[in-house]
Design a protein that fits this description.
- By secondary structure, this protein is an alpha+beta fold.
- The chain folds into three domains: 197 residues, Rossmann fold (3-Layer(aba) Sandwich); 77 residues, Elongation Factor Tu (Ef-tu), domain 3 (Beta Barrel), CATH 2.40.30.10; 105 residues, Elongation Factor Tu (Ef-tu), domain 3 (Beta Barrel).
- Strand 7 and strand 8 form a beta hairpin.
- The longest helix has 18 residues.
- The relative contact order is 0.12.
Amino acid sequence: MDGVSVQSWAPWSGEQIRFTTAGSVDDGKSTLIGRLLLDSDALRRDQAAALGEGDELDLAALTDGLEAEQAQGITIDVAYRYFATQAASFVIADAPGHEQYTRNMVTAASTSDVAVLVIDASRFEGELKPQTRRHAAISALMGLNVIVAVNKMDLTGWSEERFEDIRAAFRDAAGALGLAHVSFVPISAKNGDNVVRRGNPPWWAGPTLIELLETVRPNRARADGALRLPVQAILRDGDARIYAGRVEAGAVKAGDNVSVGVGASARVKAVLKAGKPVPRAEVGASIGLQLDDERDLAIGDVIADGAVRYAREIVADLCWLDGHAWTPGRRYRLRQGSLETQALIAQVQFVRDISDFSERASAGLQVNDIARVRVATREPILADLYQENPATGAFVLFDPDSNQTCAAGMIREIEQ
């Protein structure tokens, strides 16, 4: 089940790697972030000095920066930090551990390449905590590989038995969720063992956490997929109409034949970046496209290649994030990139039981529920499957009156 074996891990020298940290409250996520930044020399001298020394070192202070967090002693926001090693550069999203801030975990995971789930070995009592299980389920939904950082191992006397018990428990959860790639590492975030530098225990011959992270290949920045360019603005350059947006997948060059909106096609006349022609643009680039002829495109339409499908009914996995329960028949606004349309949840097929990950029937949705649903929309939406194209296979539902985000969804099937 380990995604990286002791013999096979090797640094990936390539694009920026984004990862999220998650787990239950007080398992040591913020301390781990602090240790990564400190031991990778990512802090200014004054920042490092402000952490204290020896046993008084307060590594969590680097990420628990909000006054509300400090007052409550918990992390409630997503804290982004940046650092680099000789092998790779990283963006860290420190997601909250408390159940009421699950939405922040979803936000952090949506742009990450891998999830680092932290488990407190000193408080492990034979089974995973509910929020750890929920974070594992969200990671599976988002298609993320997982690194399990078994923390506070020093408080167990570096017990190999405890480590193996936690590994067995998480492997059971991973099997139920369909998580194919999971790696484990025993660490002490407070002391720094096996985070950046190698340390205890003597029985561990595997990679450190940073060595595992250096093997990650970005899964949100591939240029080998089909082009997806949601139109964000329509501009004029003299007599020419320019369709501006961000390349969410694939690549585009002058001369390409593309689909524009529902059931129409065109040829790319020019690719513009910062107003100047470029030979080619790849995923992540903000560009403008001039087509061989003006098309009746609107903001939210998608310029694409490959097998483009549009649908008014989809089956999706949904994380319900609203404190108010779902009301059958209630209409929401669906946002997919820059497209917005009216939508409703036509059916709840099942809700995932966090205790054992079984599928149970349910007539409703409560906050933090993870469910499989059927969604109907007023206008057709781009029906990319999330596992094939995460950038355009995801959407959010929000309340049209309050603009409150109600759910995050991932398209799994297309209703014919």
